[in-house]
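Q: I have two molecules that I believe assemble together. Could you output structure tokens for the complex as a whole instead of separate predictions?
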Amino acid sequence: MATISYPIGGTQGKPAKRPALAEYFRWSIDHKIIGVQYMVTSLTFFIVAGALAMFIRWELLTPELDFVSNGETYNSLFTMHGTMMIFLWIVPMFAGFGNYLVPLMLGAKDMAFPWLNALAFWMIPPAGLLMLMGYFAGPAEAGWTSYPPLSTIYSPDGQTLWILSLHLLGLSSIFGGINFIVTIKNMRPAGMGYFQMPLFVWSILATSIIVVMATPFLAGALTLLLLDRVAGTAFFDIAAGGDVLLWQNIFWFYSHPAVYIMVLPGMGILSEVLSVHSRKPIFGYRMIALSSMAIALIGFTVWAHHMFTSLNPELRIPFMVTSMIIAVPTGIKIFSWLGTVWMGKIRFTGAMQFGLGFLSLFVIGGISGVMLAAVPVDIHMHDTYFVVSHFHFVLFGGSVFAIYSGIYQWWPKITGRMLNERLATIHFWLTYIGFLGAFFPMHILGMRGMPRRVAVYDPQFQDLNAIVSVFAFILGISTFVLLYNMVVSTVNGKVAGANPYRALTLEWMTTSPPPAYNFIGEPIPYEDPYGYGTEASKEYLKAMESRFGPPPPAKPAPEAEPNAPAPAPEPAGD
Amino acid sequence: MQNQNLLEENLSREELQALKNRRTGMTVFQISWMMAFICLIIVNWQLRFSYSQWPPPGVEAMNRLIPTVGTVALLISVFFARRALNAIQEDDRRAFLTQWGAVIGLGILFMLIMVYEWIIAPMDTQYGAVFRLMTGFHGLHALAIAVYMGVVYNNARNGAYNMLDFWAIEAGVKLWYFVAFAWILFYAVLYWI
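A: Yes, here they are, computed for all two components at once.
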């Protein structure tokens, strides 16, 4: 880490025109509008599902029932929290990033199928409403995994709405996935082969392959569940000759690859952010790109590690082995990122802070995942808070930190304004400390045997639970710092200019926000999207600056001494 | 191939890009949605292998002869679908309409046979339930695509489509291939394996 500088800020450059607000509320086939529609919708559900998490933690402050009056209500709380966080926040949020960025990064005018893209988005609000309508019918109570017989016999009618909602969301992701694959395969500009694509595009490609191959299994599983609930079949009813493990197998055959749907795009964001803000070429470009594909592929062979305690014991070892193999491509990424940051000229922007946060927390989540992949450990710890801790480390510490990082990184591109960096730092530290305080003690709770999905627990666990809850509230509050920052930036943010971070990928080679159809004239990709620090890349950036105006100055301009010629500011650490 | 050259000479860059995208998109969709059918095959197998005998004792297995007639009808219709696509690529609308009518007719025959099978499948057993699930799921797809092909037939009679503009037909043919391929898998699993 040679120099640490604060590059952000500045006012020069005319702000580009933003799309009219009304555009976001109607059927639009512009991928940038659709991307923002995805993101805003998902953020809304993030807040709703986050509020549910706060209720859960409130209930768990004491070992008795106090916030909720019975266990069923508590069941519905964590069911709705989990389902909405996964299917209405992380998955569509990454789809939003993909929609906004993939055509821009490829120098394309739009996605391959703009109309299908709009359709995929507009399936999400009705799906969210169906999910929420569960509250008028008795919300689903079977957990986000909805194992029968909980989901067939015990759960109220909200479960049926839950199924319909997930059906819609699944179709929406398949349409989105097809669109991404075709766009990436067919619409790259001349001179950009697969191995010149930005790594974010690679990660969206890998994600989309998982989406189109795995999501039909979710559709199949949900159809069976729906028929069992409303049409009198008994596929999951042992008494009638059915098989409860059938659900677990099909559901996890979708849902384990789905966890990579939820983290691969985050890894893509991280690859962009770390390289740009370290001012260094990404370390091991090909290995990062191919490890995404490896994760996508191996992800299909590990589903039964969710069923170690219900599975035929002979099958445990093979699934243990495949699950541990997943750690190899993941490790390749982690070390490549460390290699990227190593000796870089790091700029601690909001995006970079959250990127490094991701890196540190995801390692912990990954390692606890390897622990759980070991059969003896899993048999001891399954369905305890250790599992809760593990998947929050990968889904919050991984996915959500990556989303935050992406928001800080591309907010200037999307809105044409900078986010406030001081608020970003406050946001980061509140989130980081809140996160660690909330989720790290859960490891200990799990080791000591506290089961998950219970509202009433043994009083010996109360101390740690109280700590967890207090930090969870801090984590909840931290979100509002980001929202406040967004409002302040929209109203009164500094003008970003076309390329405030001096990045080399194509989305920065146009105005912020980009005009309709993205580029004026044909965009010219730089030969290496991560070739920071070379003379050629400086020339390229210079040429682009002359087209779109320079980036904001590296530091808030010091009071210039009168008569002293201001030295030309050298851009931070190129 | 000849047709591809013709398209490249006569269509604009944007139109060619759109056609290429649609073709790739169709392929991705076919692979993707085939997984839903494979999912049901796995459902069938998991249920079946939890029994020592399949169909379960006291349940009679479905007759193989009638569905075989339907399967042959479907395969012949695939042949006609391919010929119909060739016909429109040679701008022969009359031949196209004849072939396309044959596809729809054979498709309806297949579906009628499957409706009969669906009705006579044994009630109240997992064997019958999973049979109805699979044939019903397949039948809904066949029906939707047959309706689409009817719309295409009607448009063609009113003078739509020619050797440069036949994507709607190509899509129909590819979707019909999809239906046929899925059925071959289901036919094997439901009646023979």
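A: One point stands out. The mean pLDDT of chain B is 93.
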